[in-house]
Q: What sequence folds into this?
């Protein structure tokens, strides 16, 4: 009998899942409930549990934190994630931590109960069969030339395709982690194994075949951990859908990158906005290398790209320079670089639709970034045009044509927009805010603010907080 623990901060959810699902039909029994991660750990210490269903968003200790702790303390425990919404970032992290499945509570209807439990029970049986082999091999030294690993970049879905690759008697195969399998074989049948695995790449998209050398005298456990670490840190950047076979040496140590510094992120943002990377191959390649050199994890990279797109569209979406679209999902750096390439084409086309040279367009963009990054300073069209080596009158004309506002109108606009953020999101004084957006006279700032918004700063703050 599979002993089940249900962890959710909503008592009705716990009772509903416990009473409504046909546990007995699948040789399962709910033996306990917990309202948060800490109580779940206490329960796990008190009595054995085979399967834990846990919510992700809970007070005291979240489901992710619970999974990290349980994975260390109870490696044999099977975990299924309960989630209110299909938040794939959290689900992906949960699956990476060892969850064997997830259940979206909003989609859980009576007719699905049996299907869900059947899926979970089948998964537990598969893992049990795999684990029965591991004790015999985990601490055995490898004496083969290569180990092969089929690894899917999709860490969310459950895929059964590797199971269908039947092993002959000479092959050794087992599951490394979710959507990741490894094989080896004696030298006389190794080529046959390699070609069979290579052909299997066509069965599922976004799958890589790792050909691992320097495996001799290592244990299967060491190889398994190395594959998991490589998948976590390097596969994202190494994968190419047109050449999914990746040769790697286990002598090359692969570790998590150092946490990127704010100045590293700022350098990329400056290159995106200030260098002519959309029109110059050399600058384009430099930008790509800056991105890759940080070796950001997928979540960090998504956050950086999102902030760049948001900033670009905030500055240029309402101008002739156009907006750019965010990449909604990606599984590899190859997809990100393809998006950057397509984005550069779109920006270049927007620039070419203006009547000005690329040098003038870049100069106006640079002026915008200087102003945005130094709102506490007083800039003039005369001063910036001199800094950019353009005549004042021509700079003012170009600025108005490209940005849709005169230089002075735009300068006031961005300062007032920033002051709105301060008013709604801080408790700082009006004088403090005025200084931060380049106005040394609080009364003058308030007059400009009312001209553009119809309200005094204090009225805007009061009204905005009332809405909240």
A:
């Amino acid at each position: 009998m599979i002993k089940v623990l249900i962890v959710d901060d909503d008592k009705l959810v716990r009772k509903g899942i416990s009473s409504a699902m046909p546990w007995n039909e699948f040789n399962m029994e709910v033996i306990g409930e917990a309202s948060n991660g800490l109580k779940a750990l206490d329960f796990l210490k008190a009595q054995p549990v085979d399967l834990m269903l846990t919510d992700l968003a809970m007070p005291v200790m979240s489901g992710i934190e619970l999974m990290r702790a349980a994975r260390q303390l109870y490696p044999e425990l099977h975990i299924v994630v309960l989630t209110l919404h299909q938040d794939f970032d959290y689900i992906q992290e949960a699956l990476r931590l060892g969850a064997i499945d997830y259940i979206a509570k909003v989609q859980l209807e009576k007719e699905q109960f049996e299907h869900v439990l059947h899926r979970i029970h089948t998964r537990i049986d598969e893992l049990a069969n795999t684990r029965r082999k591991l004790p015999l091999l985990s601490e055995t030294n490898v004496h083969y030339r290569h180990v092969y690993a089929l690894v899917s970049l999709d860490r969310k879905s459950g895929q059964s395709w590797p199971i269908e690759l039947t092993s002959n008697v000479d092959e050794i195969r087992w599951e490394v982690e979710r959507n990741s399998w490894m094989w080896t074989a004696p030298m006389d049948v190794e080529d046959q194994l390699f070609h069979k695995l290579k052909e299997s790449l066509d069965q599922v998209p976004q799958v890589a075949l790792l050909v691992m050398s320097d495996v001799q005298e290592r244990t299967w456990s060491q190889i398994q951990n190395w594959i998991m670490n490589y998948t976590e840190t390097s596969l994202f950047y190494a994968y190419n859908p047109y050449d999914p076979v990746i040769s790697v040496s286990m002598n090359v140590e692969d570790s998590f990158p150092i946490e990127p510094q704010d100045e590293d992120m700022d350098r990329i943002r400056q290159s995106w906005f200030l260098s002519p990377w959309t029109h110059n191959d050399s600058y384009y390649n430099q930008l790509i290398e800056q991105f890759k050199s940080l070796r950001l994890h997928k979540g960090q990279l998504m956050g950086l790209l999102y902030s760049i797109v948001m900033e670009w569209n905030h500055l240029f979406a309402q101008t002739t320079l156009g907006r750019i679209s965010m990449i909604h999902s990606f599984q590899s750096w190859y997809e990100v670089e393809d998006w950057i390439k397509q984005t550069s084409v779109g920006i270049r086309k927007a620039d070419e639709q203006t009547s000005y040279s690329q040098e003038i367009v870049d100069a106006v963009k640079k002026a915008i970034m200087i102003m945005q990054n130094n709102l506490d300073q007083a800039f003039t069209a005369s001063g910036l045009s001199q800094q950019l080596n353009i005549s004042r009158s021509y700079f003012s004309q170009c600025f108005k044509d490209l940005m849709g506002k005169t230089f002075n109108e735009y300068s006031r606009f961005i300062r007032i927009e920033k002051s709105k953020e301060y008013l709604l999101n801080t408790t700082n004084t009006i004088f403090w805010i005025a200084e931060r957006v380049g106005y040394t006279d609080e009364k003058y700032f308030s007059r400009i603010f009312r001209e553009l918004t119809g309200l005094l700063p204090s009225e805007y703050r009061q009204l905005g907080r009332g809405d909240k």
About this structure: The beta strands are 2-7, 28-34, 51-55, 78-83, 101-104, 147-152, 172-177, 180-184, 207-213, 245-249.
